[in-house]
Write a structure and sequence with these properties.
Length: 449
Amino acid sequence: MLTACLLLVLVTHTQCFTVNTEHTVQLHGYHSHSALVDSLDSLARDHTSFLTKYDIGTSTEGRSIPALRFATNQSRPLLRPMVKYVANMHGDEAVGRELMIALSEYLAKSYGKNERITNLLDTTEIHIVPTMNPDGFEKKTLFSQSVRANANNKDLNRAFPTWKDLGQDRSELTNGREKEVTEMVNWILDNPFVLSINFHDGAVVANYPWDDKDSKPWTKSPLFRDHEGGNYTPDHEEFVSLATLYSTQHNNMFRGTSSCVDSSQFKNGITNGVDWYVVTGGMQDFNYLFSNCMEITIELSCQKKPKEEKLQGEWENNKESLISFLERAKSAVKGIVTDENGNPVKDAIIEVSDRSKDVVTTDRGEYWRILVPGKYRMKAIKGNTQSDEVEVNISDTGTEGPTVNLQLNREYATTTTTTTTEEPEKDGISVQLPLGFCLRLTWGGLAEC
């Protein structure tokens, strides 16, 4: 068996497993910013074949906002989905920061040794950002080792464009924004992420959009249609599914414990943002409003910076959830939109029945659509052309989603309803009389025309 496997590796350059081994991660404490950067540099140096470190940008005080890219191909293959994890948006919420370092180590050192992780990295491009707010984490006060806001004392999760800003170009969206927000906005708009998590602390719950109340994006963007869901998005079922996936794979989040600050309970460990409390200018709403990416927010711990000896338990509580959510991207319906000559079409709109938000294709014509199980009808639209409408059946969110390629091959047809205001034709026979008079002869007698 071993000989056969080695031969297979030599011939096909694929992984062959005789034993599944799992890397054990040990969390010992909190990393300073310089130690965090060194840790990511070390991982990238040791795994150059599939791991790259890069900077999204810099903070207000000039610290790097580092990221790791897990990609087993230098250039992303067509239809390979992208997922991102972002932590430490609030500088004093540090559990997610350490979990992102731990997850990065686990993925890097399990690839090629653990079949599940190898398959994940071979089919999904993953980007991990351990800290979005390094200035807040590094700032010390008389009463704390870190602060919530950035160096300008701005809450970054209240500083993103909202639905009222839809229709603005990128320069308008970023004008006057905090530096960290501008870096994230550009990163999100530059990459076709499918799924995302934003990690926080202060509760134990999976939170999904809307965060802002009374959102009406259809009044600002043609990618949304009128939706009577109140404070729930057009993809409410999908967001509930994503939040539930994380909470049920967590060691205790699914129990729906208290919010840590009051007596309220989170059924199944999930909550809609507005149902909990309103956040205007949040990052998860921005992702859904301005890109194809569906982001949820995970509150990891009641304590924002628990004692160092508690970190190992947090890793064990969240490890399965972190991996399962990354795997969820493969279940998306995906495909390529082409024109009549077979050329990929950028910015084509993918319209799905019973969903009043559309996604758009990449510059290579790709799209991904997260959907819960059910039957749907889909079509692509670009300008005055459209594809045939195709029926798609989603039976399971745990398996690879179907590939549905669409070709623009006909004139775009819209369905309109015409209301007539003409009076109905009257019964009887009309007789024109001299001087302009008219009488109508009916079974009931004479009447005016």
